[in-house]
Specification:
Protein name (chain A): Damage-inducible protein
Number of helices of chain A: 8
Number of helices of chain B: 14
Number of domains of chain B: 4
Radius of gyration of chain B: 30 Å
Strand order of the largest sheet of chain B: 14-15-16-17-18-19
Strand order of the largest sheet of chain A: 5-4-6-7-3-8-9-10
Largest interface: A-B, 56 and 52 residues
Structural class of chain A: alpha/beta
CATH architecture of chain A: 3-Layer(aba) Sandwich
Order of helices and strands of chain A: HEHEEHHEHEHEHEEEEH
InterPro entries (chain A): ImuA, P-loop_NTPase
Radius of gyration of chain A: 19 Å
Shape of chain A: globular
CATH class of chain A: Alpha Beta
Distance between the termini of chain A: 39 Å
Mean pLDDT of chain A: 86
Largest sheet of chain A: 8 strands, mixed
Oligomer: heterodimer
Helix content of chain B: 25-40%
Strand content of chain A: 15-25%
CATH topology of chain A: Rossmann fold
Chain lengths: 253, 475
């Protein structure tokens, strides 16, 4: 009797605390990847809108972030509305983004002179509210800046994606330092599957979810964005246990 | 051809063109003497008033295009205060280049110079041999030293007197003790020298263009506190918006001038992507730039001008069945005032075979383009401009390379697709007509995907050198 009363009191207290923690925050829906294994690993069943996410390339991709940019394009392609893309070096090739499903009429590019200017434009975009997503290519993302960005994203429901990109591979060590981002991803190219004929098949990426708030990190091998921005399950891996499950087993063994 | 007019009590040649100058006619010569030298000389009456009016129109053009503080530098020049204006045109040199080019298109041969003082810029624009002169401080000092003394805006008799004394260049003057010179030629010489070297300030009185919507506030006491400046900026914007609303107009470009008590003028210029008269938005744009204004000892007058205004009508919203596109005009304006309007763009298609020419930048809020790039050929997400040369080991012509070295790293090609042949655009040049590129989409042993091409000078594979280039990255 007393035990159940204590537990119900605790329940009430927990609910109260949760309410305080949520504060003025409104919760936004999440954008699922459409791949059950990935969506299960994310606490809200998909990539949280109104939040900051970090994406970087792995290996030599830390310099060019070509796959990371495509991965981000695939995410924002599946949303509907204006997208702001902040960059310092204008080497992004718009036709490739269009092939990942991102309509060029929806994307406004802003070419800022420095990392700090990109961060300022990033925040301005997140705070405005008329955009559906802001993608920014940044090298340095200090804790304070990322916290501001996260709060700005929360205030409007705009999704913020920081594509981390460094001038030299050595600088990528910065990716280990903490930020206020909700998730942190690393996209590395891996050899693609064989084709019965000479040629080149759909790109294959190792997608690592390195950090996720209130969740566990995991990794998957996926096929690159299709023309609507969706990732795919590689055919030759489809009927095998996914890498994530194997990792899970290793962790519990 | 010469222009003749009255100079004092005689009729003299006032201006000559190049061919007349080659034939030995120079300004200041008596008109009769010139005609005696060249009986078939085309002589036209000089019209100083007309010239001044045209110069004022040119100043108004420069005001709209380049900087909020522009003055007509009679009889033959424009003075533009480029402080804080150059970055909008890509820098100092590109800005001058743009001015000279545009004037050239209008049939006006112009020379331009950028220097740290009005006097120096005036002198260098008129005496340097190059059409465009941009100087940093040491080279400006050197160039000014070499300039002839007539470039200092001195009366003709002073120049003549200096010549008699053997003082022909500015550096000769600067090296001399000042007092005897002042004694001989008056304080004007000393003043002009100091103005050119920046020892005394020389304010530019900006040209005022009539029939622009403009509001002014004068202050009995000079103001300088940031809060006060902010408050009056807000009030001026309110006034202007009322005026704009009366005329049914919206502002595209605003100039806020701060007239300081030391006669200098500080300015802020903002532009908007769409005509607007929303006081909150306009004052936010102005306030974001207010920190660049140095009020000095105080500001006695502020003027806000709608430099470019366009009709602004009310538009119906929420057409049936059509989802309204979110309004990002305010964001575009804020970002444009932060980084410059030309660095804010959308990408659109250009029908061209060459990948680097297939995209162009369009204004961020221009109408949607329905044209799309072809989807059947994969394109890289990063495009290198220019393409980077690579060294390759290729087994067969028309095949992708077996290995290649890019940025000091060797990659072995495991899978490849191609070639996709692209021809040069014959419409552009003859050299391009024969040039072809064979693009290959390759994957190396680590799974990295590259976009390579082999360049040939002709369509026959066995002629000409084949160079390989890296043009883009897929992953």
């Amino acid at each position: 009797m007393s035990a159940s009363r204590t537990s119900s009191a605790l329940e009430a207290l927990r609910a109260e605390v949760a309410q305080i923690e949520a504060g003025e925050r409104t919760s936004y829906p999440a954008l699922p990847f459409g791949m059950p294994a990935m969506d299960k690993a994310l606490p809200s069943g998909g990539l949280a809108l109104g939040a900051l996410h970090e994406v970087a390339g792995g290996g030599v991709g830390v310099v060019d972030a070509a796959a990371a940019a495509l991965f981000s394009a695939g995410i924002v392609a599946r949303l509907d509305g204006w997208v702001l893309w902040c960059l310092t070096t204008p080497d992004l090739f718009a036709p490739a983004l269009a092939q990942a499903g991102l309509d060029p009429d929806r994307v406004i590019y802003v070419e800022a002179g420095s990392n700090d200017a990109v961060l300022a434009c990033f925040e301005e975009g997140l705070r405005h509210g008329g955009l559906v997503a802001v993608v920014a290519e940044v090298a340095r993302l200090p804790m304070t800046a990322s916290r501001r960005l996260q709060l700005a994203a929360e205030s409007t429901g705009t999704i913020g994606i920081a594509v981390r990109r460094w001038r030299r591979p050595a600088e990528a060590a910065d990716f280990g330092s903490p930020t206020a981002a909700v998730t942190r991803w690393r996209i590395t190219a891996v050899p693609s599957g064989p084709l019965p004929v000479p040629g080149i098949s759909r790109a294959r990426w190792l997608v690592e979810l390195m950090r996720v708030r209130a969740g566990e990190s995991s990794e998957w091998i996926v096929e690159g964005c299709d023309e609507e921005g969706y990732l795919g399950v590689p055919a030759d891996l489809g009927d095998r246990p996914s890498v994530a499950q194997a990792w899970d087993r290793r962790a519990h063994a | 051809m010469v222009l003749a007019g009255r100079e004092g009590n005689r009729r003299a040649v006032l201006a000559v063109n190049d061919s007349a100058r080659r034939l030995g006619i120079w300004p200041g010569m008596a008109a009769t003497q010139a005609q005696a030298l060249l009986p078939d000389l085309a002589t036209f009456e000089a019209e100083p008033d007309e010239d001044a009016a045209h110069l004022a129109r040119l100043a108004a053009w420069a005001l709209k295009r380049y900087s909020p503080v522009v003055a007509a530098d009679a009889p033959d020049g424009l003075a533009i205060d480029a402080t804080g204006a150059t970055h909008l045109h890509g820098g100092e040199y590109p800005m001058l280049n743009d001015i000279v080019l545009r004037l050239g298109q209008a049939g006006i041969e112009a020379k331009a110079a950028m220097a740290s003082t009005y006097g120096a810029a005036h002198a260098l624009a008129r005496t340097m041999p190059m059409q465009i002169n941009v100087h940093d401080f040491p080279s400006e000092k050197r160039a000014l030293g070499l300039a002839p003394v007539r470039a200092l805006r001195l009366p003709a008799e002073t120049v003549l007197g200096l010549k008699v004394m053997g003082l022909e260049r500015v550096r000769d003057l600067l090296a001399r003790p000042r007092a005897p010179l002042v004694h001989r030629f008056g304080t004007e010489l000393s003043r002009r020298l100091d103005q050119a070297t920046g020892h005394i300030a020389e304010p530019i009185t900006p040209v005022v263009v009539p029939d622009l919507i403009s509001v002014t506030r004068g202050f009995p006491e000079p103001i300088s506190a940031p809060e006060t400046l902010q408050r009056y900026t807000g009030l001026l914007v309110d006034d202007l918006c009322v005026r704009l609303e009366k005329g049914g107009m919206g502002a595209r470009k605003l100039d806020l001038l701060f007239h300081r008590i030391d006669a200098r003028v500080e300015a802020i210029r903002i532009g908007t992507a769409k005509p607007g008269r929303e006081p909150k938005h306009l004052s936010r744009l102005l306030l974001s730039r207010l920190e660049t204004v140095d009020p000095g000892f105080g500001v006695e007058r502020m003027t806000l001008t709608a430099l470019v205004a366009e009709p602004l009508d009310y538009k119906p919203t929420g057409t049936l069945g059509e989802k309204a596109r979110a309004d990002v005009t305010t964001l575009v304006d804020t970002l444009a005032s932060r980084v410059g309007a030309e660095r804010l763009y959308r990408m659109a298609l250009v029908e061209s075979d060459l990948p680097e020419r297939s995209v162009r930048r369009v204004a961020p809020l221009s109408n949607p383009t329905s044209l799309r790039w072809p989807e059947n050929w994969p394109r890289p997400s990063r495009l290198f401009s220019p393409p980077e040369p690579i060294t390759t080991v290729a087994l067969l012509p028309d095949h992708p390379p077996a290995t290649f070295t890019w940025r000091n790293t060797r990659h072995r090609v495991i899978r490849a697709d191609g070639p996709e042949r692209m021809h040069g655009e014959w419409i552009r040049s003859d050299a391009e007509m024969l040039g072809t590129r064979d693009y290959f989409h390759v994957e190396d042993e680590a799974g990295l995907r590259f976009w390579l091409f082999r360049k040939s000078e002709s369509v026959h594979p066995d002629t000409g050198p084949h160079h390989w280039f890296m043009h883009g990255l897929f992953a």
